[in-house]
Amino acid sequence: MNQHFETGAHFLALAQRLYDLFLNQRQGERSPLQRGRAERADPKELRDRLQPMLAEIERMSEVARSREVELVVFLINPQEHDGSFQAEQWAYNQIVGEYCRKRYIRVVDPLPMLAGVANGRPILCSFDDYHWTREAHRLAAGALFDYLTREGMLSRRG
Fold it and tell me: Which residues contact 88 (CB under 8 A, 6 or more apart)?
C-alpha cells in the first residue's frame, strides 16, 4: 500500500502499532498485519521475482549504450523498524550486482555502508513507514558522489 497510497500506509502502520500495544503481544511474535513477509526466501525464488526488474535494467542499458551514455544502477534498501536490514535485501543486492557486473553495467550498493552506520539502530527509516530519513539520503548521496568521482564520471570541482 505504501508505494501507491502513502496516507493509507500511515493509517495501516498506526493500526498495527495500536493492535500490538493494546493486545500486548509477546516479544518477537508478529501481528497478523506483519504475517506473510518472508524472513528468508529461496535464492531461485528471489531470482525469479527479480526477473522483470533485471529485464528492465537490460533495456535501460541498451538505450543508454545506443546514446553513448553511462547507466549507473543505484540499489536502495529499506531499513526495518528494529534497525536491521532483511536478509532478503542483501540477497537482492547480490543478485542485481552480479547481473550488472556480468553485463558491464555500473552498480552502486550502499547497503553495507548504511548498515554499518546504522549499527542496528533504526535511524535510516521513518518511524511509521520505510521511506528513508534525511540522514539516509545524505549518506546515499555521498556514496553515489564518491563512486561517480572515483570512476571519473564526475569531477570534484563545481
Answer: 38, 39, 40, 41, 46
